[in-house]
Write a structure and sequence with these properties.
With about 280 residues, this protein is α/β, with parallel strands linked by helices. It has a single domain, classed as Spore Coat Polysaccharide Biosynthesis Protein SpsA, Chain A. The chain is about 45% helix and about 20% strand. The protein has a 7-stranded mixed β-sheet with strand order 3-2-1-4-7-5-10, sandwiched between helices. A two-stranded parallel sheet has the order 6-11. Strand 1, helix 2 and strand 2 form a beta-alpha-beta unit. Helix 1 packs across helix 6. It comes from Hyaloscypha hepaticicola. One of its GO terms (cellular component) is membrane. Keywords: Glycoprotein, Glycosyltransferase, Membrane, Signal, Transferase, Transmembrane, Transmembrane helix. Its main location: membrane.
Length: about 280
C-alpha cells in the first residue's frame, strides 16, 4: 500500500476510531454515590436563576421542581419592568412549598446575563451555589446527588446530565428537537470521556451546575466575569458556563460530572429553529 492509500485509509478510519474510543471512555464514568454522612444539607444551597421576560409556564413548572429539592433560597434576577408579574407569580405558589426563601432582584430594564449572575452570586448566602436556567426541570433527588460531589474537598464544581423533553402534541420529532437531542447526546459523551481520560472538563452545562461559593464569591471573579471583553471593546455575554468552568479549574479545583440517573435535569426542546438560535446566542 502506497503512502497515498495509507493516508486515505487513515482519513476514513479516524472518525470511526474516535467515536468508538469516546463512546467506550464515556461508559467508564461512574455516578458519584450518595454519602452516608453528608457534609452539606439542602439548607446550604442557594439557587441562582437569571431570567428575561415575564414568568412563563415552563418557569412555573421549573420553580415548583426546584422547591421540591428544598434549597435554602432561590434568587431570581429579572429585568425591572417584569417585577410586578413575578411578584404575582411567586404569591401564587402553594404555601406548602414555601419553606425555601424566594428573593427577586432587579438589574435594570435590559440586564445582561453575566450581570444577572454576578448579582445573584454576590447576594447568595449558601455554601453551594447552583446556577440554573429558568426553564430547567429538576428531579426531587437532584440536589442530594450534586451535593455528593462536594464530599471530595478538591471538587469546586459539578454538572449534571440534561434530557430533552419533546412536545407530546407532535407525533414526529421536529428538526430543532432532533438537533438538540443529537447535540446533547454528543456533548455529554465527549464530556464524560474527557473526565475519564484526564479528569478535566471543558464546560459544565449552564442549564444546571453547582459550585462551592468561595470559588465564585470573590471580587476578582466578579470583575473578570462581568468585564470579559472580546474584540477588545465588546463585552461578552455568552459563554458564561465555559468561563466559570475554566476559572474553577485554573485555580486548582476539580470540575466533575454527576452521571447518576436520578441527577438528570430536563429542558423543553425548542419548537422552532429561530428560538433555538436565540437560545444559543443568549
Amino acid at each position: 500500500m502506497n503512502l497515498h492509500s495509507r493516508l486515505m485509509v487513515s482519513y476514513l478510519l479516524y472518525p470511526a476510531l474516535r467515536f468508538v474510543s469516546t463512546l467506550w471512555l464515556a461508559t467508564q464514568l461512574s455516578p458519584i454515590p450518595l454519602p452516608t454522612h453528608p457534609i452539606f444539607t439542602p439548607r446550604n444551597v442557594s439557587v441562582i436563576v437569571p431570567i428575561v421576560g415575564d414568568p412563563s409556564v415552563p418557569f412555573l413548572e421549573a420553580i415548583s421542581a426546584w422547591l421540591t429539592n428544598e434549597p435554602s433560597e432561590i434568587i431570581l434576577i429579572i429585568p425591572e419592568p417584569n417585577k410586578a408579574s413575578f411578584d404575582t407569580a411567586i404569591k401564587s405558589i402553594s404555601p406548602t412549598k414555601k419553606s425555601t426563601e424566594i428573593s427577586i432582584l432587579t438589574n435594570g430594564p435590559s440586564p445582561r446575563k453575566r450581570q444577572q449572575l454576578s448579582l445573584g452570586i454576590t447576594s447568595a448566602r449558601g455554601n453551594i451555589l447552583v446556577l440554573t436556567d429558568s426553564d430547567v426541570l429538576w428531579q426531587p433527588s437532584l440536589l442530594p446527588y450534586l451535593r455528593a460531589a462536594f464530599q471530595d474537598p478538591s471538587v469546586g464544581g459539578v454538572g449534571s446530565l440534561t434530557k430533552i423533553l419533546r412536545n407530546s402534541s407532535i407525533s414526529a420529532a421536529t428538526i430543532p428537537e432532533s438537533i438538540m437531542h443529537r447535540l446533547f447526546a454528543q456533548r455529554y459523551r465527549q464530556l464524560a470521556a474527557m473526565s475519564v481520560a484526564d479528569e478535566t472538563l471543558t464546560c459544565l452545562s449552564g442549564r444546571t451546575a453547582a459550585y462551592r461559593s468561595p470559588t465564585l464569591q470573590n471580587a476578582s471573579f466578579i470583575h473578570q466575569f462581568t468585564y470579559d471583553f472580546w474584540r477588545e471593546d465588546q463585552l461578552s455575554d455568552s459563554g458564561d458556563n465555559a468561563f466559570i468552568t475554566r476559572w474553577v479549574q485554573e485555580r486548582g479545583w476539580k470540575a466533575v460530572l454527576q452521571v447518576a440517573r436520578d441527577a438528570t435535569v430536563s429542558t423543553w426542546a425548542s419548537v422552532s429553529t429561530g428560538k433555538l438560535a436565540r437560545q444559543w446566542v443568549r
